[in-house]
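Recall from the previous lesson that a structure prediction takes nothing but the amino acid sequence as input. Here we apply that procedure to EF-hand domain-containing protein from Littorina saxatilis. The sequence below is the only information supplied.
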Amino acid sequence: MAETAVSSHPGSAASGLGSPGKHSRICSGGENPGSSGRSSAMKNDVRRWKRMHEQNAMLRLTELRSAKKVEVRASKENARELARKIPIELLVKDWLSQSEATIETRAYMVDKVMPTLILGVEKLLNAVDEKGLADPGRASGFDPDFNPLTFLAQYLFRNNPRFSNFSEASPYVRGMRQVAEELKAQLFDMEDNRLARIKAEAKRKRTERELQAKLKQQEKERRQQALMTQFEEWNVPTDNNRVELSLLQNALRSFMEVAEQFPPEIQEVAKFGHPLESTDETGRTLAVTEFAQFLSLHVETLPSEVFEEFMEHMSKCAAAHRASAEREHRRIMLTNLFIYCDHSGIGLLDRHRILNLFEQFWDVFQDSKKSFRNPRTWPVVEVDEADDNMTDDEDGVATIPETAREDEDDTTTTQEQGSDEASTAATEQQQQKVAESGNEEKATEGSEETPAQPQQNEVPGGEEQKAEQAEEQKPAEGDAVIQIEDSEENPTEETTETAEKKDSQETVMKEDISADPDLSRDVDITNEIAKSALQPQAPQLTAGATGRASITFAQGTNFERDKTGLTANSGGRSQSQMSAFDEDNLNVSQFVQLTETFLGDGPEDTGFSKLLSFLREGYEETEDEKMERLMKARKEAISANRKVQLDSLFEKWDNDGSGYLDLEEVEELMMKYKEGQEKEVITTARVELKKQSKYQDNRLSKKEFRTFVNMVIDSLPGTDGFEYFVDFLLNNVERSYAERVRGEARKKWLQNIMTAAETSGVSLDPIYKTVFQSLYRDAEAHGGEKRISANIALMERNVKAPHRGDILLRYTACTPEDAEYVLNKALYKDMNGISFAAVEQGKPIHVPRVNSHGNIHFWNTDRFPDEREGSFIVVPLKDRKRRVFGVMGVDTLADPHSKAIFITHEILYFQGVAQMFSTAYHLVDMRRKLLRITESAISWIKRRSPHVSEIMVYMVEPAKQGPDFVLRRMMTTDNKGFPIHAKDPPVRLERKDNLFRDYLFKSVDNSETVTADAYGNRQLAFPLRNDEGKAIAVVDISTGALKKLPPHENKEIQRMLRLLQQAHKEITREFAGEEKLQVLDAEKDDDTRMEIMFDRLMLMELRENVAKLDSKAYAELKAYNNPPEIVLHILRATLAIFYQDQAREGEFDDWSSVKTYINNDLSQKIQTYDPTALDDLISPSIIEDYLKDVPHGEVAKHGSLPAQHLYNWVFVCLSLIEHTRKMRQNSEEESMGASGTDNVPQKEPAKRSVCNPYGYSVAIPDEYLRKDVPIEHHVDVSSHD
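The prediction returns the following C-alpha cells.
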C-alpha cells in the first residue's frame, strides 16, 4: 500500500524521472504481491463452494432415488397382494391357439384391445338388464334415452388403459395378461423361425435366379445357333460366304416397319435393345460369327414370341435376297441380249416389236404359259393398252369372249386371214429355230459363265460337276452367243460379230452424213448425248420380221402424250435416274423390267433360255430402219444441245432472276448482228412470234426466248448460223463481276424456294418461310441492309359480303413482326390500297414514298402518321396462263432510314421471287388435287376389290444429297380400308434403307408397273406419270398372301388405275396451261371439281360403254321371259333414276312394265344425264333398296355386259348425287356464316408467321381472273436509283 501511495505521489513521480529503470518496470504492468494473494483466496473460495453444492445435490438425488424404489416396491407388493385376492378367468385360455398364422394379431388384440373392450361389453349388458331392454315380455326393446353405441364409446374413453388401472381388478383381464405373456413368448420363439424362413426364401430366390440365368443362357445359345443357321439362308454362293451389312440393317429396319402392325402391348416389347445405325454404304460384309453377333446385339432383349416373329421375318428377307440374286443373274443376261438386239447402237429397242415377240412366244410355246404372264394383259402392257375383253382362265390361257370377237373390225379379220399362211410358216420356222438354239443357249450359259456367277439352281459343292458339263457343252465355233460376265467386270461387252455389224453400220452412217450438209455439222457430238436425246418413230412391223402383221391392243387405244426427247438435262436433279415412259421405245432398264414382268414369279431355266433365243432370233431391223433411227438420234442430239446453250444464254441475260427478258432489249441486241444486215429477218421473226403468242406482253419467258432465237436462226443463211449467232449474243451480254456475284446468289435463293416446294409434300409453310428468307437475305446483302417486311395475299371469292366486291385478297402469310396486324385479314375492293390495281393491271406497282401517296391501307393502326415513312411495292402472282391469283407486298416502313427506296435490280428480283413462288405454289396445289383424286380412287378400289389388304401412295421427291430421289408416304389405308393422310413427321423411303422394297424404286426408275413380293405379301407398284411420261407418284397395292386376285377384281383395279392415270394427266395438263375440261354442272367450282373428278371420269367411261351397246344388247335383255333377280334389280335401279314417281308407285315390280322402257331412248338418257345438274336431287333410298342384295362380284360372274355397265353407271350416279348434296350443304352453311368476322383484331398476337393453306379457297372463276395487259417496265425509279 505504501508503495502504491508513494508511486501515486507527485514528488515520487518527479523523483522517478531520475530512475527510468524502476519507472519502466512499474509502468509495464508489474504485479503487486498484495493483489495476487487476494485473487488466489477468491479462487479457492469458489472451488470450495462448488464442491459443497455438488455434494448437497448428490445427497438429495440419492434420497429421491431411494424413495422411488421404496414406492415401486410397495406398488408391486400391493399388486401381488391384489393378484392373490382376484381369481383368474379360465375363458381367456381360448385365445391360446396353435395357429401360427394369427399369433401376431392375437397378441396385439389381447394386449391392447380386449381387456378394456370385454369389460365395456360386460358393463353394457348390465345396463341393458337394468333397463329391462332384454326382457322377452317387453313390447318394445327400444329406449329413446339409451344408445348402446354411445354408452360403449363413453366407457372406452373413460377407461383408457393409459390413464386408468380399473380394469386390472377384473379376473378376466388378469387372465388376459397371462395369455398375452404366453403369446409374446411364442412370438419370440417364432422370430428364430422367421430368420430361418428368410434364409430359406433367400435360398429359393437364389435358386430361381440361377435357374433363370441358366435358362437365359440356354435361350441365348439357342438364339445364337438359330442366327448362325439363319446365315445359311442369307449366304449366296457368289458372296464368298459373307453377307453385306447393309442387307442386315435393311432387314432390321423393315422388321420395325412390320412391328407397327402388332398390337400396342406387343409393340412396346418389340423394340430392339440397340439403336439402329445409318445404313452402311462402304460395302462391308460379315462372316457367320459376325453375322450372329450383330443380330444378337439388337434382338437379345426381345421376348421369345417376338423373336420367333423376327426369325420368320428374317427368313422372308433371306428368300427375297436369294430371289434378288437370281434376278440379277437374269438381268445380266437380258442386258447382253439388249446389246445384241440394239443393232443401231443408240440404246433403244422398239417396244411394239418386243411386245409382239412376247405374244408370238406366248402363242407358240404352250408349255410356258403356266409360269409366264399373258403379254396381252396388264401388267405386261399398260392399263390403257390392255384389252378389257381379254380374260385369263385358270391355266393362264388368254381367251376372248364371243361378244368381243363379234365386235372386231372386219378389216382386221381380213388382214389376219390374209397373213395366216405366212404367220403359220413363220411360227413353225421360229419354233424350229428356238428348239435348235435351246441347247446352244444352255451351252452358252454353261461355258461362258465365270465361276463367280452361278446357275439359278446351283447348290454348294457342285462346282466339279458344273465344270464337267461346261466342258462338254461348248458352243460351236462361229455361233453368236450372249456372254455372261462377272459382276465386277463390264456386263455390256459385245461379241465380235455384233461389233463387226456396228462398224459396218457406222461406215454407212458416215457416208450418209457427209452427203447431207445439214447433218455434217456438229459431228463431234458424243454418242451418249445421242442415246439420251433419242426418241425415234416406231418402225413399221412386217410379217417377215415378226411373223405377225399387227400388234394386238385394245380398241380405241390412243397415245396422246407428246413425244419428248430423253435429254439428260430435262429431268432435273430429282429425276436424274428416272426414265420417261415411251410407248414406242425401251431403254435397257425398261427392257429388262418389262421382260422380268413377262417372265412372272419363278421362271424355269428352260423357259428363260427359250425366251432369250426367241428374242435374239426374232428381233430384226432393216437397214432403212437402222439409218432412220441413227439420223433421228442425230437430230435429237443437236436439238438438245441447242436447248442447253439457249437456256444458258437466258440465265446469263436474266442476271437478277426475274424469269423474263425485255423483248425490246433482246431485239435491240439482235439488230447489231452482222452490223444490222439481218434486221429484216429479226423483224419478221418478231412478227411471227407475236402471232403465235397467246399473251400480248413485251416480256419473253425462257420458252418464248428459245422460240424467238430459233425463228431467227432458221431464217439465217448458211449452215453454221446457230453457233455464230449464239456466240455473238453471249459475247455482247456483258455483266460486271459484282453483277455476276449478285446474280449467282439470287439464283441460289430462288432455287431454294423450288427445293422447298419439291420436298414439302402438300404444305405451303416451308415455301412461305423460304420466300421470306430469300427476301431478307437479299435486302441485307444487295439492298443496302434494308429492314423490310413482306406479306402474301391470295384471291378468294367474296361470298360473305358480295356488295364489297366479287373477290377479296386474304393475307395468308407475312413476316413475324406484322402477324398480329395482317395475318388472315381480308382486303376488299372498297378499301384503300394499290393491291387490286396491281391485280387488274397485272404488273408491279411501286410507291417510293408511302406517306405522300394517299391510297395506302395501313393495317398497323398503332403506328403514328409521322412513322409511316418508307417504300412499298406490290408484285402480282401469276399462274402458267399469266392470270393473277394473288399479290406479294414488300415494304420498308420498319426501316429507320428515311430513304429506304427500292431500286431497279431489287424490283426485278422481287418479280423473280413472285414467279418462283407462283411455280412452287401451283406445284403444291397440284399435288393436293392429285391426292384428293387418288383418295377417291382408293375408296373405289377398296369398295370393288375386297381382297386388296392395303394401299399406300408415295410422292417422288428429290433427295437431300446426290442425284437420287426419295419416296414420301402421303396416304395409306386404315384397318377398315378408309384412306387416311400421312401425319408429320413424314415417312421418307430412301433406296439404301429399303432394299426389300426396291420394287417401288424400280417402278419410278422405269415408269412401269412392277409386281413383287415384300415380307411375304404380294405387292403391285403402279406409277402415276406427268405429261412427260416420268413418274411423279407411285401407288403401292398389297393383296397380302394372295398371289392373284379374282378376275373381276383384277379387272376393276385396272379400270380404276386407268382412270386415275387419266385424272393425273388432266390435272398436270391444266397446270401446264391447257383449258379445263368441264362436263358436269357441279364442276363450275374448282374445289367441287376435285371432289367429283374421278367419279366424273368413271361416268364418262360408262357413257361411252353404254353408247357402244347396240340394239342386239338391249334385245338380249328383252329376250328374258323371267330374268335373273340380279339383272332385274339392276334394270329397276336404272329406271328409278329417271322415273322416281313410277318407282315409288311400284310400276317396276312387273317385268313386263320394265321391258317397255328398255330401248334406245334409255341409252340416250344415260349418255346425257347429269346427276349434279338438278336443283332438287333425287332421293337415293329407292335405288339403294333395289341394289342392296346385288353383290358386285355376282354381277361380273353373270356375264351380261349391258347389266355390268348399267350397274356401274347407277353406282357412279349415286356417288355423284351424294357428293353434290354434301357440297351444297357445306356451301349453304358457309353462306349463312357471319359476314363481319373478317378483319376483327386478334386478342392475342399470332405466334406463327404462316397459316394453314387449307383454311381458305384459292379457286377463282375465269371471269374474275384478268389476263396481263401489255406492260413495260414503267416503274418510276429514276429519282432514287
